Amino acid sequence: MEFKIALIRGDGIGPEVVNQAVRVMDRIGVRFGHTFYYTDVLMGGCATDAVGKSYPDGTAEKCRACDAVLLGAVGGPKWDGVSAEKRPEAALLAIRKDLGLYANLRPATLRPALKSASPLKAETAERGIDLMMVRELTGGIYFGKRNRYQTIDRGVECTDLMAYSEMEIERIGRRAFELARLRRKKLASVDKANVLETSRLWRSVMHRLSAEYPDVEYSDVLVDNCAMQLVRDPSQFDVVVTENMFGDILSDEASMVTGSIGLLPSASIGDGAPGLYEPIHGSAPDIAGQDKANPIATILSAAMMFRYSFHLPDEADAIENAVDAVLAEGYHTADFAGRGEPIGTAAMGDLIVGKL
């Protein structure tokens, strides 16, 4: 089989970790008889430096011409003070919107060899962590109308509108229920229905959907309680679905209880558009070019690409098993603990490719 993959290498450590994921994908191609064609797409701070804006004209079109998109990382303090169209983060919001990527899937999994790396108590970590955060990605306060104005007696005042429609809630809800059916058939919907009108709409739509999925155990969880439960006992969760801002915060919390954000992938998908796959870590400019970055999250993002965009579960399993085998032998990069001295980005890539 042949696949076209857009590579947004991005900023900081992005190019380094993407390079290792490409090596892994090429090895999968040899082992399973696939051919991958790569198209480099300029986006992020590097695009600002090159052409004056972080999201160059034609970016979405180049990505749509491919079967999937692999992104390394964008951003960094270098571009903190630039105008809106030059900010790397603006490019991320734009590509999600243009490709219709409304569902962010972020697994939080405690790899078997890394239970001691979790900041949770040993008895809590021993119960395991294997949950999928499903975050609505193109609605809510991040995409709402913004306003800034001068008041007579309070100085400058700002507003950010948080808006959700039934359609937006229903499509992310269905995605979450379908994912739950493929896993352990448990779904927790997170909202703030005791305060927010958007959450009350969210909850009513989710209740309506739950009647269509009687085989899935459904529960409502207030966002503040969910934050506490993720620390108290994350093993209770299977699939967790929530709106954009809550998901942004909770998915970061869930990732940290697994030991290192350098180990966790993510997928942003829509209906028919090429999915976008990326590690959840940032661009880490302080270690860029030093062969210190952990490529595992990007490599596991490639595994998610095989699973969700290419529908090749055996290939995805092979990558995940190779990563677990390397970790089980105690190898580690500098961002998490293991046996012996940490190894570099390329060496970690060598080991994972070797297991394949």
Describe this structure in words.
With 356 residues, the protein is of the alpha/beta class. The protein has twelve helices and twelve strands. The strands form two sheets. The chain has a ten-stranded mixed β-sheet with strand order 2-1-3-12-11-4-5-10-8-9, with helices on both faces. The protein has a two-stranded antiparallel sheet with strand order 6-7. Strand 8, helix 7 and strand 9 form a beta-alpha-beta unit.
Task: Kindly summarize this structure in a few lines.
The protein is an alpha/beta fold.
Reconstruct the topology from this structure.
Blueprint: E1 2-10, H1 14-32, E2 35-40, H2 45-51, H3 59-64, E3 68-73, H4 88-98, E4 103-109, H5 122-126, E5 130-136, E6 146-150, E7 156-160, H6 166-182, E8 186-191, H7 197-210, E9 217-222, H8 223-232, E10 239-242, H9 244-256, E11 265-269, E12 275-279, H10 296-308, H11 313-328, H12 345-355
Radius of gyration: 20 Å
N-to-C order of helices and strands: EHEHHEHEHEEEHEHEHEHEEHHH
Give average pLDDT, whole number.
94
Which term fits the overall shape? globular
Distance between the termini: 19 Å
Largest sheet features: 10 strands, mixed
Number of helices: 12
| Total E-strand runs | 12
Content of β-strand = 15-25%
Low-confidence stretches: none
Strand order of the largest sheet: 2-1-3-12-11-4-5-10-8-9
